[in-house]
Structures are given as structure tokens and as C-alpha cells.
Amino acid sequence: MDSKTFNVLRTHHVEYRVTDLDRAQAFYVDAVGFTVTERGADGLYLRGLEDRTHHNLILRQASEPGVAHVGFRVSSENDLDVLGQYFGTLGVDVHWETGVERALGRVLRAQDPFGFPIEFFYQVDQVPWLLQRFDLYRGAEVMRLDHVNYISPHVEEAAHWYQDHLGFQMSEYTVSVENGKDRIWGAWLHRKQTSHDLAISNGKGPRFHHASFIASSKDQILAVADRLAALGYVDNIERGPGRHGTTNAFFLYLRDPDGNRIELFTGDYLLADPDWEPIRWDLEDPQRQTFWGAPAPKRWFDESMVTFDWNENPMPTTNPILPDRPIMVD
Amino acid sequence: MDSKTFNVLRTHHVEYRVTDLDRAQAFYVDAVGFTVTERGADGLYLRGLEDRTHHNLILRQASEPGVAHVGFRVSSENDLDVLGQYFGTLGVDVHWETGVERALGRVLRAQDPFGFPIEFFYQVDQVPWLLQRFDLYRGAEVMRLDHVNYISPHVEEAAHWYQDHLGFQMSEYTVSVENGKDRIWGAWLHRKQTSHDLAISNGKGPRFHHASFIASSKDQILAVADRLAALGYVDNIERGPGRHGTTNAFFLYLRDPDGNRIELFTGDYLLADPDWEPIRWDLEDPQRQTFWGAPAPKRWFDESMVTFDWNENPMPTTNPILPDRPIMVD
Amino acid sequence: MDSKTFNVLRTHHVEYRVTDLDRAQAFYVDAVGFTVTERGADGLYLRGLEDRTHHNLILRQASEPGVAHVGFRVSSENDLDVLGQYFGTLGVDVHWETGVERALGRVLRAQDPFGFPIEFFYQVDQVPWLLQRFDLYRGAEVMRLDHVNYISPHVEEAAHWYQDHLGFQMSEYTVSVENGKDRIWGAWLHRKQTSHDLAISNGKGPRFHHASFIASSKDQILAVADRLAALGYVDNIERGPGRHGTTNAFFLYLRDPDGNRIELFTGDYLLADPDWEPIRWDLEDPQRQTFWGAPAPKRWFDESMVTFDWNENPMPTTNPILPDRPIMVD
Amino acid sequence: MDSKTFNVLRTHHVEYRVTDLDRAQAFYVDAVGFTVTERGADGLYLRGLEDRTHHNLILRQASEPGVAHVGFRVSSENDLDVLGQYFGTLGVDVHWETGVERALGRVLRAQDPFGFPIEFFYQVDQVPWLLQRFDLYRGAEVMRLDHVNYISPHVEEAAHWYQDHLGFQMSEYTVSVENGKDRIWGAWLHRKQTSHDLAISNGKGPRFHHASFIASSKDQILAVADRLAALGYVDNIERGPGRHGTTNAFFLYLRDPDGNRIELFTGDYLLADPDWEPIRWDLEDPQRQTFWGAPAPKRWFDESMVTFDWNENPMPTTNPILPDRPIMVD
User: Fold this and answer.
1) pTM above 0.95?
2) Which of A247, B85, B96, D270 has the highest CB neighbour count under 10 A?
């Protein structure tokens, strides 16, 4: 398979399930700083200040929280057809939709072999660019989606699959050393020229750890922590602000009122050269997780988002073989 | 006169004259980030996020713009009486008011010998502290009044008067060297423990150059420039962002829709020791004005605010003997 | 006693005991960003970029770590004599020194009734101001000493003593509510016009929790965390960056290579009015400690610095009656 | 020509001519914050903290200042051969070099039809990544090269040439409206996924306006202005800090001790989608140049760097037909 015959541009959006749209809007829009593109009975379509396409986050009204799907944009309508055929040769079931998701054209939907509901499309409505509408900047000043983070008991296989079949490249990875041999415990994969579009971490899955959105600066990540605390969202601040060793991310992790998790993120690097040598981290290196050394809180490691299939059933999960978190002593 | 028998705490507020209250509110509150304490037919009473007293800026409805008065807070009601008597011995006319200015108790009003309308009071209404109401932070995140800047043809005398009679101390000064002798061209005077409560610059006066308010950080000074530009206030951005040599201020100068001037300011230092040796700057040192070297725009030097007496008449002005601005070549 | 007959200006410096001067210099100067004024066989005299006096931190060569004394500056030589006599009337033992501590004139030394070694002086050598020597800014860009934090089983009594006898004012306090009655668990006291010069917390003591130094900005507090981590000091980063509810401090706590603790601090407020109503916090309010909710690590609460008397003997300690830390669940 | 048969990755480096290497190193490395990879008799090879290849700026010892060449990296050795042949079909003279420029493999050198000396290569030595060596961060914390800015009397043609033949895409452009018709006055072109690799502005040329390097943040751009001023480089600060309307760049322009110009830049956006509609700016819109309204200093517009051919002769220049700068009134 030549990955050049289609081109996955980037992770474009994610759909979260929320049980109360008003409550979700108060959190994501008024407090955190997302921009509303559109709201309907079915849900909220949000975007960032830097986005020129319709949405990077859909909050859909549902009976239970969790993640509904991840959307990837490709380079053209023709790419979609090529990709649909290619999935056929791989034995991946696909179905096509049009008009189900607002603002998109034809959509190719599938579940990857590891159980994650993914969709691909080219056509999407353009919306006004708000980059210089500084009067609308608020909270973390959410700019755009950066990546999503899957949890899977099959990290190594999943990372290979996205590289071999969808043309992702590995920027960094974490290993659990077993009998002197590196086993991939976490993988950072990208299509656009940043450190990641997709991260995959070891754990009981398929589950979803978080979607990560670019905040305008470290200052705004600090500012949104202050803002959330002032608004009574102190329990929604789960971890950070801090810096990851991996990808150099300056981060803040939040739980929305339904328990869904997002990361606010800045401090990434550009990755434009094809001969990038992936950076290796040892699972037991405490600076991998937090460059400044503080351990992550237990719930950040132990809790994850339920992943639903396209029929809105929660995916059954499997336990991992590798340790599901590093050994830590507070 | 022992200045310890009364204690001027600090420059507490300033009153500006504006011709359109709604327009002024849109600028100062919605764009720049002041907090409204109260609005009446007579005007707007604004404060900063750090303030615990009722107002640091009054915008009073008037037929012409300009400055109406500067308010200084003293330590006690008794201080007011002592000060009133002391002004009598100096031949300064005073009058007492109660109930004219919202939120204040007894007010002692005067004009200093150089023509500036000043008032003193102790009692002032306390208001909720918003320092940790980060959800209300906006624009420059105006924290508090820092200082006012007079323009006078008698800088040296005025600086001595505030030091000799009101207990101000000099933190920094600018000299014009004439025949090898320092002539004071600008003076930075303080009562509270920062670099200034009152600056006096050489020029045709009595006029008023600006009132200066503390912004929460350099970042927020950059952010408010972006915000003002996005809101169509680009012509209201007069100078900066930049850093003054004098007082190390990181600054942005704005003109309100009536042409009144404010400075947004951060980066000051603490000055708590009594043996502070004032810092001397030469008028011809370009880094005095802008530490990074860029000259101030002409209108910043040439335009100033009309100062009104207590009867609302503009004060007549006198030309200075010293050069009214440094010689500059772009 | 009229506190106006002498004037304690501010907490001026602290002396820490370190077992290896070179190792301490690498940490405090090269990594954290203190400025060396002078180094002798006896120790290092450090200051901040904003300081105009000789030192704000002495690191003295000693066999064991801990705190040796806290130095307060007064307004004049006469103040020292008045204070010495006043301590006599209080039954506090004093002794006078000259020439023992570099750069100081006459020094009045005592232990307060709670066991803390304190000294007072007026005369101190002036040193070059580095505020605009931006080429020397490094690490946290340490500007000046802000405050020291004692640990005592007698917080309420100690807070009263510093207020009644040395003219401190209370800016904020924490209470443990016992049978519906507020018991002072922590006190923030100041002389200079910021939230504190001296904090006192409940616990086994006399012990010393930390000295706190002003960093130039939140950004530099983040930057020094990165710098320390890059230099291998990851275990020296104890807590933060974060924001305290009390005093609104944006903080980072560090342990030096001997285990002595410092805080890097920014985000304080100005407190220039005499009628400040102290802010009350409840010990059980999680936002008191960390405004963003994350609990402090156990060692931050449980470990403190040994306090030595003027004969270099460790002070015996007493257990507190109030709970020594809030009940927390991770 | 199918641009997919070779792939220009990005603008990789620029070579400046300097007359005094020590003086240049003091400026670029000690003051501004570039990293030295290597220094030889011929010159200095510098890079940024984020770079993994050998150099992004060469400072070559020469008798007169100016720009010597711009280097573009391509995707493979094969791309070089394809590109060499393609230039042949276009009538562009090329020559191959190996071993002339340190750290590069085979180099394809040419002058574009507008006179700019350009080179292409794939192979380049990898060097240690310093992204998390925060102890080495200094000055503007230069991360990587962003773009170069040509001056040409043939902007429209040059922009077409880079798009048609080298696969560049236009992100933004400025027009001079003549008789109701848009004439391209400035063009922002990119290969990597940011707003530009190459900008071309109207003026007497071929000349070179600047190379632009990414600083780590707005704060560090302010910090380097302070640092430069403190080190005596105040005349080297030419323009800013400020924000451009075009590309949203937060900028600072510097002149090196030889008069060569660099921009320090942050605040860019990601541009990963193929259907990007270029943003149009009118030459007479003052916010195009400075979003906050302040005009650029005259020398920023009027002075440019001499461009040398591969034989080290200055290129002859031609005057533009369009106005060479917007009409401005201070």
C-alpha cells in the first residue's frame, strides 16, 4: 500500500457525549474558551479561534458520557474513495454517510481494528477566522484541536497500523523494558507537522483518555486555571499546570461536568523533516510524565472515557499485558 | 512643619471629564478592563480588581474633556483637620465638602500653588475585593491606580512643595543640564512604597499628562493592545507597548474617545527603605524615555489634558523656561 | 508601647546553614537566579536584582542545615536603641554585635518569646542596583526577599506579639474552627506594603518552613522549573507551580541540596491603607492552600527546617494543640 | 510540471556576510540567543534550540555585509536530481557543490530568475536537540528559522514562479489597488505548515529584507529587547515589539552590528489544509503593517540588504513600478 495515494491531513475533530448541553456549554464555552459555531437540538458544534473549518469538538446530547468518534480530514474527495477501497482490502468494515454530521460532505465511517470509531471526510464548511478577533479571546483562548489520545491494550499493533496503513509517523514513544527488550507502551503519531495527531497509551481498552486543544500560551493555561477555580470548577481541574517530558507539552487536564477529559496544551514543536528519529522514553523515567517530577494524580491514570461504537453501544474492553501505569511512590 | 503629624497614604483616584458616558464606558470598561462600581447621571465610578475602596477613576459627564481633580487618601479624620490647618498656614485656600463625591466622607479641597486641583479625605466606602474573581478579569486587567502625571513650567518648585509640605519622597528625577548645572526637568515622587504616586514633567501648564493604572502583567498589556485594535480603537493606542528607562515601567499609553490620556503600567519596584538615593537621568539620554530606544510619537509630547479649577474653569497656562521636550531625531 | 517610636521597615534577610558552599552556590546562583554580592570563607551573601542593600540571603557554612536567624531593618540608628530598651521592658534578652555580619552596622540580636532568632539593624551597605541589568537576569530572576514563614505551636500568641510589640499588621489569617470558635491556625503579618513580611503556621516548633523570594513573573517561575529540571534538580522541586488562595501567591517551593526550603513567589497585592480588614480563611477550605485544588505533597506539610539559637544549638520543639495540617484525601 | 515529483520541505537556512566574526558572535549568540553549532575560520554555523539539523544561519567572514544565499531542504537525494533537471528545462543555470558548505551533502545551487541565490540539498548532519536543555535558553530563546523576506520589483512574477515551479502556496498577500485592479505588492508563501517560508515585498531589488527566526514566546521577545538595551545594543533595535496584521506575527526587528537585519517572531498559525483561501490585505490599511497602528520607522522601509551572486558580486538592482512603501503620515 502506498500511503501517498491518499493523504490524511490531520485529526480534525472529536465527538464527545454529554448529558446536559447547557451545563456543557457553560463549561466549554464560557469557562474554558471554546467558540460556538452552531448549536442544535442534537448538540453543540465548537471550534477554536484559529480554526477555519466548522468544528473541532462536537458535544452531543446523550444518556451517558464518553467518546463517540474521531474525525480525520483527507486531501480530496478522491482520497476518500481510495481510502474506502483500501479499507475493503484490509477487511475493515466501512459505511458512508452524508448529512448526518453538520457541515461535512461525504463521510467514510469505520472502526479501526482496535475498536476506535473513526471517520474521514474532505468537504467541510468554512467559517470566519477569528485569529485577530482578540475581543473574543477568553479563558484558555482555545486555538485548535491538536490530538486525541487512545487507550489500548495493543499499543504496539495500533501504532503500526496507523503508520503502515494511514501514513502516520512516530515522533516519540515510551517503552516498558521487558527482559532487556523494548516493548512500546505509548506512541506519539502525527500527520500534520507537529508532534502528534494521535497518541496511544497502554491500558484497558479500547478507551479514550483525552482530546487535546492548543491554548494560546502558557499564561492562558495559568489564567484558565484561575478562571475555572473562580467559577467553582475546582474539582474539574485534574492535573497541572505542568510540563510533560514527552512532546514538551505544557499542559492542563480538565474533566468536564460529565467526567469527559480534555487537555489544554501549548509548547509543541514543528516537525517538518522526513528523517525525524523518534525520541525514546523509558516508562520508569519520572520526567517522561512530568518534566518537573510531580507524579500525576491517581484518577488521571486510572480513569478513562468509555468509547462507543457507531451503534452507540459501549465497546467491550480487554486488559493490557504490559503494566498499565508506571510504579510510582508519592 | 513635621509631615508626620499627618500622613498622606497615596494617590487614591482621579476625576476625568468626558463628553459621552456611554462611549466612555465602552472604552474604559468593556475594552480596557476597568470595573464599574457605580454609575449615576453625573458619572461613572470605576475601580480596579485589586481595589477595596469605591473608585480610582471618576468619569464625569462634562461639556469638554480634561482633568477635574486628583484625590489623595490620608490616614485618619484627624489628619484631615491637621492638614486643613496646615494649608491655612501656607496660605493655600481650602474648602470642605461632604456628600458631593460619592462614597467619600469629609473632603478637604484645594488647589496647590501650581494650579492643580487636589482633594484629601480619609473615609471612603469599602467594596468587594475582586482579586480572586478571575472570571471578571478582562482586557488589561486593571488592578489599581498607580500615579498621576502633572505638567508644569515649575517642576523644581512643585517637586519641592510636595516633598516639603506633604511628605512625598523622590524616587527618580530627570535633569536638563544648563551650564553644567542640573535643573530638574522631571520628578517622580511617592508616598506609598512604589516608585511614584505623582510625577511632574516640564511643559506648558498647569496641564495634566496622564493617570497611570497597574495592569496585571506585561502579557495583559500586549493583550489589551490586541483587544483595542480588534475593537476599532487603533487610533486610541498612542504609544507603546514599551519600557521606560525611568521607573522601569512597562507601559502602554491610550487616549480615550475624548482625548484624555491614561497609561497602563507594570514592572514597578518596591521602595520601602528611607535612605533611597534618587536615581538621576539626563534629559538627552534616549533610554530615559524608551529603554529600547524608539522615540515617543510627537503627540505624546505635545498634547496634554486641560486642567480645570474647582469652579470648572480651565486653568490659564504658562510656558516653561526649560526645553519642553528632548531634542530627538527619528 | 507606641510602636511609632520605632519603625520596623521590613523583613530584610535570612541566614540559612548549608553544608557545602559550592553546591549551594550552584543551586541558588546558577540555577535559581540569585545574585552573589560577596563570598567569604564563612559563607555566601546573596541578593536580588531589585535590591539596593547588601544581602537578602546568607548561606553560612555549617555542619548541619537549618535556619540561623532572620534580619529586620529599622528606620534609624535611634530606633535600634529604643527597641533595645523596649525589649528590656518586655524581658527579652538582647545582645549587641558589630562586625560579625558583613555589611551591617550595629546589630541588636534577640530570640523572640517563641524561640525564633531575630536581629535588627539600620545601617547596611548599599550595592549597585541591577534592576535594569537585564543581561544578568537568569532563572527565576530573583528580585527581593518577600517574607519568612515560621512554624510554631503558639501561632495566636506569636501573631499577637509581633502586632502588639513590633507594629506588624495582619493581612490574612486561617482559622481552625473548634466548638464554633475561630482559633488562629495561620497568620500573615506585614510591615512593608505587601501582604506579608512574616507568616506563622501551626505545627511543632519553633521550626522554620521557608523564606520566600519574589520572582519577576509567573513566566519566570515556570522557566525556573524547566531550568531546574534540565539541570538535574528535579527532586528539589517540591510543590507547584500553583496558586495559593491565601495572599494570591503564584508559587514554586524548592528544597536546596541540604533540604532547606525556599518559595519563589509572584502575584502579591499592595496594601497601603490602614483600615485593611484581614481576610479570613477556613483551614478546611481546599482552595486556601491551592486555589486550583491540588493538595500539597506530604513532605511540604510534614518537613520543616531546624531553627538554631544564637549559640548554634538546635531549639527544642513543642507539639501543637491544633491539628498540624488539614485533613486531606488525595 | 508536477510539483509532487520533488518536495521542497522548507526554508532551511540563510547565509549572512559579516565583517567581524567576534562582534557578530557577541550579538547573535550572547545577546540574541542563537546556539553555536560550529565555528571555523570561514564563519559561524548557528542554530536554534528546536533544530535537529546543523545550522539555520551561517555568518560568513566577508569584506562587506549582505546576504549570500538561502538554503532550502528537499525530501531526498532523488528530489535533488529531479529538481536539477527541471531547472534545466526552465533555463535556470545550476551548479553542484559538495564539501563547500559544512554539514551538507550534495548541494544544487542556482539563482532564481529574479536574482536570488538559492541552494537545495537533502543530506545534512543531525545535531543534538536542545529543546529540553532549558539551562541553555537565553535571550530570545531562538527556536528555529521561520522564513526569509526578499525585496523585488517583480513581486507578482516571483510569487508565481515559486508557486508554479517549486510548489509553494500563498497564505496571505498585500495588494496595491491600481485603477480598481489588485496588483500584488507583497506575498507570503509557504511549504512547511506555517504561514510562510518565503515572503516577497515590493521594492528596488533583488535585495533582502530580513530572515525571521522563531522566539519561544512574546515574553522572550520583550526580554530580548531589555537584554539588548542593557548590553548597549539599543541602536540595533529597529522596530517593535509589535504585532503585524499580516500573518499575526508578534515581532521585533534587529540590525546586527554590520547592519544585516533579522526578525524575531512568534504568534504564527498552523496551516495544514490544502484549500486555504489566501488572506488579502490592502497596502493602505495601516493595521496590515502594525496591527496596533504605529507606523514602521523610515529605515525599516528604506534600507535593505545587498544580495550577492554566487561569485560574490553584488547583484545590480532595478526600481519597482508599484509604490515602494505605503503613504504614511506620522
Assistant:
1) yes
2) A247
